[in-house]
Amino acid sequence: MRLLTLAKTAGAAFSAAALGGLATAPAVQTAWYRRLKKPGFQPPPQAFPIAWNVLYTDIAVVSASTIDTLDDRGQAQQARAYTRALALNLVLNAGWSWVFFNRRQLGPAVVVSAALTVSSVDLARRAAAVNRPAGAALAAYPLWCTFATALSSRIWQLNR
After folding, report:
1. How many Å apart are CA 55 and CA 66, to the nearest integer?
2. DSSP-derived 3-state class of residue 114
3. Where does the chain cross the membrane (predicted)?
4. What is the average pLDDT score of the chain?
5. What is the DSSP letter of 4?
6. Is 55 part of any domain?
């Protein structure tokens, strides 16, 4: 894995995290968020930044490795396709925070979360096709997104 590629994927993941954080941080302090009914399976607030920091790091490292491996194999078209899939994934990732926290649109947030889950499965599948251990390392991301979709869905149901 090349340092430049890692810097690009880490920069992209950090940008998604930062953009999502701009919507999330102020909203979790509001009366609106505190009044939302939340399911018993919602993790404590401290779990989210820990989980997401680990996942963003994983996304950056696995993606850089995948892109460089494809380039090294002469599969530039597949490397570009992976890069586009990563970009879409990170847009969905940051977008969920804006839909849920900033716009307070719980139903549409479930749709964005489900799309993020599908995108995350696709990203892990693409990585695994290049390097099985890398794909396995990225498997935590779609699992977390699946959980986040279930959590978003339940919050929506509880607060209709």
Report:
1. 16
2. helix
3. 136-156
4. 97
5. H
6. yes
Number of domains in the chain: 1
The C-alpha atoms of residue 79 and residue 11 are separated, in whole angstroms, by 17
CA-to-CA dists, residue 139 to 46, 76, 157, angstroms: 22, 24, 27
Range of the domain at 60: 3-37+49-158
Domain containing residue 24: CATH number: 1.20.1260
Q: Is residue 44 part of a domain?
A: no
Give 44's DSSP letter: P
Q: How far apart are CA 66 and CA 56, in angstroms?
A: 15
CB 133 within 8 Å of CB 40: no
Question: What is the pLDDT confidence band of residue 81, given thresholds at 50, 70 and 90?
Answer: very high
CA 50, CA 150: separation in Å to the nearest integer?
19
